[in-house]
Amino acid sequence: MTNVDTMLQAVDFIEGNLEEPISVSDVADAVGYSLYHFSRTFNAVVKHSPYDYIMRRRLSESARELLTTKKKIITIALDYQFNNPETYSRAFRRMFGMQPTQFRKGKTINPLMFRSRITYEQLLHINKGDYLVPVLVEKPALCFAGIATTIVSSHEGKRELQERFLAILDRLPDGMRTEHYYGISIYPRGLDTQGFFYMNAVEVERLDDLHPLLVAKPIPPLAYARFIHKGLYSDVGLSSDYIYQTWLPKSGYELSMPIELEYFGPNYLGPHDEASRVEILIPIRRAEQTR
Amino acid sequence: MQPRIIESPKLILVGMDFFGDPCAMASPWSEENEIGKLWRRFEQFLGRKADAIKNKAASSFGFEVHIETDETKSTGEREVFVGIEVSELEDVPLELVVKLLPPTKYAVFTLKGAEITSDWGKLIYQDWLPQSGFESHYSYLIERYDERFKGLEGKELEESELDVLVPIV
Known about the structure:
The complex is a heterodimer of chains A (291) and B (169).
Chain A: H1 3-16, H2 24-31, H3 35-46, H4 50-68, H5 73-79, H6 85-96, H7 100-104, H8 120-126, E1 135-139, E2 142-151, H9 154-169, E3 181-186, E4 196-203, E5 215-219, E6 222-230, H10 236-251, E7 253-255, E8 259-264, E9 277-286
Chain B: E1 4-8, E2 11-20, H1 34-49, E3 62-67, H2 70-73, E4 78-85, E5 97-101, E6 104-112, H3 120-128, E7 140-145, H4 154-158, E8 161-168
């Protein structure tokens, strides 16, 4: 049994008991670890403290029930082991920035903020090395030129666009020719089931001679957290899940704009190369103190 | 894992304190956990102002005390104190706090190499303690570091020894 296997058992135990009064100590018992060793291992492997993970999973599931059931809010609160509706509201607000009542009345939560059940693939991915430790970078105003599409199912759509883009990359006008390019995702309504806008592009200095086949997108000066996704490009979602569901909530930052940049730079070796690296940049600012 | 049993007088420690989940990463920008961070802070203080600590004990142990209660068991949190021993309290520096540990018997386990990062808590409390004829006395334990401890990585870990002291009665 590796640590990842055992922590997956712990995650399974937690999932089976989201609506039961379990303590972190009970989870440690369930996998046969002492409390301290369990806490140390869980933090190291899952990158959440056990208590944080349990609370985020309870809140995420409770939010789902707010939308999909007609249960009273107090019932949902008690089901998910909150002592009373006030405690539940405070915790809900801390995670999602709004009250459960507001959410039920139709205010939308950016789906990136939910904590989904962590999977075996995610655990393996985030334990590959410290590629996902971010660096804070500042970028001036950027201008991109390329081709764009609206994507519903994320990976297939990205791959198709990338193929079209690579086919025209050689034929770009002189000033734009480069081997390195970007993938830009824009979530105009927050990421929701309506899909998102995705663009493959190169950075350009000026817009005035934009080729008629291309579209351009200017982006203001921003601070970004830059991560490295290492591995198959089809696994890039595993890196995103970690960034938005694990890193961002405890970073003290929030998204400053609903966009994400991928940079296919000199270390990008193609979609099927395990050693390939893609930079992922998300624009951030200090989170407002809602807690 | 067989311990030796010692009688200890009251221990007076001065150092620094943390309460929370000590294994959570200290910040999203670093891979060091709260205990490592606490030791760094304490060592930096010692580097700057070691003389400010009066009546240092002859022993050169570094103490890491873990304190758990029923309440903290539900969240995985605990208090962690790191510090050194003094023979008497006098003019404790503003940056430091004091921890007094009662006179008690301790079971002393010497962990070697990979044992240090293994789940020794389980071996002690679930395997050794029930058949030992002793009971746990207070809900804390001490990790006592000295020059036999080299580090937590690779070869350094292999050559390291660490004493864990469990209060018993």
